[in-house]
Amino acid sequence: MPVLKTLAAIAVAVLVHLAGVRMFPGFAQVVDVFLVVVVLHALEGNSLSGMLVGLLVGLLHDSLTSAPFGLFGFADTIIGYGTARLAQRLVIQRASGVFAVVSFAAVLQQAVLVTLAFLLLPDSSLPDPVWAAVKAGVCGLIGLAAHIAGRRWRRTAESRRRSRMSRLRLG
Amino acid sequence: MEERRTGWLLVVLLVGQLVFLAIQGARGSSSDTFLEAWGLRLLGPAARTVTTIPESVSGAREGLRLRGSLQEENRRLRREVEELRLQLLQLTDVEQEMRRLGDAVRYSAPPGGRIRAVDIVYADHVSWLRTLLLYTGDEPAREGQPVLAPQGLVGRVVTVAGPYAKVQIITDRAAGVGAMVLRTRRQGVVRGSGQGEGLRLDYVPLQADVRPGDQVLTAGIDGIYPRGIPIGTVVEVTQEGQLFHGIEVAPAVDLGSLDQVYLLDYTPPPPRVREALPGARP
Q1: B90, pLDDT greater than 80
Q2: C-alpha distances in angstroms, B164 versus B32, B115, B255?
Q3: Is the minimum CB–CB distance between A42 and chain B shorter than 8 Å?
Q4: All domains in chain A, ordered by first residue
Q5: Hey, are the CB atoms on A26 and B47 less than 8 Å from each other?
Q6: A157: which of A103, B147, B226, B268 lies 20 to 30 Å off by Cα?
Q7: How far is CA B230 from the centre of its chain?
Q8: Closest chain A residue to B125 measured between Cα atoms?
């Protein structure tokens, strides 16, 4: 079941990314929905799963860029593992905490990508720092919104389950 | 214990990926991999679906809205066809004249290629790592195949996965095109400037005469693109260092407005011939 949930989240991220780029040409410059999925999944605290999902999602993202294949795979593997390890040590429940973690992950991802690009590509250029900051903020907001929506959905499902159980007991 | 094993696995994965990236870097950024082709095959259909749905909806809506003006457009297009036929006749005449003159001096023109239209299913021409994804249908694209738009050069195919092909756009920082200034035939290399959608024309010496407004075309010297495809227009010329001009070029093609491009079936000189040239680096 968690595997299906993760695959569904990745599929939704792919569709949102493709539709976003189709509708707004600058979408990929300001949002990285793939990263949001990796971070939110890793926040559950399983470092192995966080790392593997990071790798898979990163490689999928690599298929949609002109960079050497594996650049996002490398960065997202680190993000997935690092976030999961962080979640094991800190209880990140508050919305502001999720916002901070996703935003920081976006900054870290950009830093890893730029470092790798400079090491591996002969003529690398820096991404615009303003857009990198905007991306971190927007990713944080999307992560926050997804976290709140997920929490509400879980609460609703839980209350439904309880009312059903109580009806069963009464019956 | 479990965490320790995961830590080791992380190290192995990261080192493996670094080696993989380094090998790609050494082979050139355009080298495709099995995994990349697999990713393209997986995401290509999704990209195509996302592109097709809004197009068919808006197409149907447009069809209903424009029904009245179609007759007028039809008349205008017929007139245009007539004018184009006339122009074609004149140009055929000119072409034959040129052939006759070429034959007289035993000049063999480089072979022109067949072009075919293909759809763009994913276009990211703004972000740092920009790319286009094409759906080429039953006839797959070829690696290194030039990609054109009616206004000029778009880029070249770098990865092919079945009916999908990934394109390196000329505004990509890693892309390089052998180019020449049309007015003076001075050659240089066009690269993505890394800032927005601009281009730079590098390695043009300070002695060369280059002015804003000059047209820049492919030079046919890189073993990838044939000669004479418009790349862009010079917008600014500055002195950069003591040897070369700093030349900013505006691309001929508005990459943001593309929904279809053309693949050019062009056969570059065989690698054996290119490698035999001293200093040649395709």
Answers
A1: yes
A2: 13, 17, 19
A3: no
A4: 2-170 (1.10.1760)
A5: no
A6: A103
A7: 11
A8: A25
**Picking from A124-138, B70-84, B157-171, B268-282, which range would have the lowest pLDDT averaged per residue?**
B268-282
Q: How many helices (H) and strands (E) are present in chain B, helices listed first? A: 4, 12
**Bridge partner list, B180:** B187, B217
ipTM, 2 decimals? Answer: 0.81
Which residue of B3, B14, B256 is in closest CB contact with A74? B14
Work out the minimum CA distance from A128 to partner chain B, whole angstroms. Answer: 8
CA nearest neighbour of B255 among B175, B166, B153: B153
Contact across the interface for B131 and A66, Cβ inside 8 Å: yes
Q: What is the pTM of this model?
A: 0.77
* Res B281: pLDDT: 47
Residue in A closest to B170 by C-alpha: A66
Q: At what angle do helices A2-23 and B34-65 cross, to 10 degrees?
A: 50
* CA of A152 vs chain B CAs: smallest distance (Å): 29
Give, to the nearest 10 degrees, the angle between helix B2-27 and helix A47-62.
20
